[in-house]
Design a protein that fits this description.
Layout lengths: L44 E6 L3 E3 L8 E2 L4 E6 L1 E4 L2 E4 L6 E13 L5 E9 L2 E12 L6 E11 L6 E7 L6 E12 L11 E11 L2 E21 L2 E12 L3 E7 L7 E10 L4 E3 L5 E4 L9 E3 L10 E8 L3 E9 L4 E10 L2 E8 L6 E9 L2 E9 L2
Antiparallel strand pairs: 1-4, 1-12, 2-12, 3-11, 5-6, 6-11, 7-10, 7-12, 8-9, 8-11, 13-14, 14-15, 14-16, 14-17, 17-18, 17-19, 20-21, 21-24, 22-23, 22-25, 25-26
Length: 378
C-alpha cells in the first residue's frame, strides 16, 4: 500500500504476475481501496514493523495473542508501547484507513489454520479480520487486510493479534507491517455540474412522465435519461445559470406492469457525464387499459413469425395511431396513423426484415396509450 497522486483521466488498475514463466496464478481474494486524504493539518498516523523471524507462543488454541515485538516505524499523535498504539491527542479522533501484511509459518508439520485481527480497544473489529491456511511447517503464508475504523475516545487503542484455530502449536512471524492514517475531508472538492433539487416520476395512461428541477447549472450541455440502465432520451440543459430551471421528459415506451428505475445524468460541454444514482426513482407503469369506448386485444400469435395482429374494437369513430419500437425505445416503424370507423379492426404487424427479439407495440387512441410486448421468433 501507499500514497498516489491522481488527476482527471487517470486509470488505476490492479495487476499480478508469476515470478516463473508459464505458471498460472489463482487469485483467492483481491482488494484495491482508494481513500482521499487532504487538509493542511498533518494527518494523525502510525505504523510499526517486524523485519526478522519472531516466535509467537500459542498457549491455547483459539486464543488471541499479541504478535512478537514490533518496532515503531512512524507516528503522529500516536505512541507505541508493547505492540499497542495509544493516541496522544483528541485531534486524532476520526476515521482511519488501515492496512497490514504479515508473512508467517507454523511449527506444526501437518499445518494449521490461523486468523489475524485488529482490536480497537478491547474489541475485535470483524471488518479487519482475515484467515489463512498453512499446509505445513515449511509453508510460509501471507496474511493481509485493509479496512476502515473509527477512533472516538481515549480508549480506542489499536492492537494486531493472532490465533491458531487448529492447534496450540507456535507460529513464527517472518515479516509484518501495520499502518493506519487518518482520513480528512477536503473542502475544495470540485462541485457537481448541477444542483438537483427534485426528480420525480409519475405513471399514467401507459406512459411515465419525469419531472426534475435544478437550482444551479454549470456548463451543462444536456441531460440523459436512463431507464433500467439503458439511455432512452436526452433533454438540452441551460448551460451556466444560477436561476432555477424545470424540465420534463415523457417515456412513451414503457411495458405495462414492468417496474422501471429512472436515473438522471448531465453532460457538460467537455462531454463529461455525471449520473445521480442517489436520486433514482422507481415506478410501475399501469396496465395501459383504455376507456370503455375502446377495446384492444392481445397480439396473436405471440410469439410470431412472420405476421401477428392486434385486434381492436371501437365503439365510435376515433383517431388511431400505432407504432412499433424496440426494447430500448427506438422507433422501428409506424403501423397505423389515421381515423377508423366504429367497429372491429386489426393492426397487422409484418416481421419480414426484422431481427428475432422482443418489440413494443404502442397504440394511441384519443391521447390514451396502450403498450404491449410481442416476440418475433425466426
Amino acid at each position: 500500500g501507499g500514497i498516489v497522486s491522481i488527476s482527471s483521466g487517470d486509470i488505476i488498475s490492479l495487476y499480478a504476475k508469476a515470478g516463473t514463466p508459464n505458471n498460472d496464478l489463482t487469485i483467492e481474494k483481491a482488494t484495491i481501496s482508494l481513500f482521499k486524504l487532504g487538509d493542511t493539518t498533518p494527518n494523525a498516523c502510525a505504523s510499526m514493523k517486524i523485519t526478522g523471524d519472531q516466535s509467537v507462543t500459542i498457549s491455547t488454541q483459539n486464543t488471541w495473542t499479541t504478535i512478537g515485538e514490533y518496532t515503531l516505524n512512524s507516528a503522529n499523535l500516536w505512541s507505541l508501547s508493547s505492540n499497542v498504539f495509544t493516541l496522544n491527542s483528541t485531534n486524532a479522533y476520526g476515521y482511519y484507513f488501515l492496512e497490514y501484511s504479515t508473512s508467517l509459518t507454523t511449527a506444526n508439520t501437518g499445518g494449521d489454520n490461523i486468523e489475524m485481527g485488529v482490536f480497537i480497544g478491547t474489541t475485535l473489529n470483524s471488518e479487519l479480520m482475515v484467515s489463512r491456511s498453512l499446509s505445513s511447517n515449511t509453508d510460509v503464508g501471507v496474511v493481509c487486510g485493509v479496512g476502515l475504523f473509527q477512533v472516538d475516545g481515549p480508549d480506542s487503542t489499536v492492537t494486531l493479534k493472532i490465533r491458531n484455530t487448529t492447534s496450540s502449536n507456535n507460529l513464527t512471524i517472518k515479516k509484518s507491517l501495520l499502518g493506519f492514517s487518518q482520513i480528512r475531508y477536503v473542502s475544495s472538492d470540485t462541485p457537481l455540474p448541477i444542483t438537483l433539487t427534485s426528480f420525480t416520476a409519475t405513471a399514467a395512461n401507459g406512459t411515465v412522465e419525469l419531472v426534475w428541477e435544478t437550482a444551479t447549472e454549470t456548463n451543462n450541455a444536456r441531460f440523459i435519461i436512463y431507464r433500467n440502465g439503458e439511455a432512452i432520451g436526452s433533454v438540452d440543459g441551460a448551460g451556466t445559470t444560477t436561476e432555477p430551471h424545470s424540465y420534463t421528459f415523457t417515456d412513451n415506451t414503457v411495458v405495462p406492469g414492468v417496474t422501471c428505475t429512472y436515473v438522471l445524468a448531465d453532460v457538460d460541454y467537455a462531454n463529461n457525464e455525471t449520473r445521480y444514482e442517489g436520486e433514482a426513482v422507481t415506478v410501475s407503469a399501469n396496465d395501459g387499459s383504455l376507456a370503455a369506448d375502446f377495446t384492444i386485444g392481445a397480439a396473436y400469435p405471440n410469439p410470431f413469425n412472420p405476421m401477428t395482429i392486434v385486434p381492436l374494437t371501437l365503439a365510435r369513430d376515433a383517431m388511431v395511431r400505432a407504432t412499433l419500437y424496440d426494447m430500448n425505445g427506438r422507433k422501428i416503424k409506424g403501423l397505423l396513423n389515421h381515423d377508423l370507423s366504429a367497429g372491429a379492426h386489426a393492426i397487422n404487424i409484418d416481421g419480414n426484415g426484422m431481427a428475432t427479439g422482443l418489440y413494443l407495440v404502442q397504440i394511441e387512441i384519443d391521447n390514451v396509450l396502450n403498450v404491449q410486448k410481442i416476440a418475433l421468433m425466426k
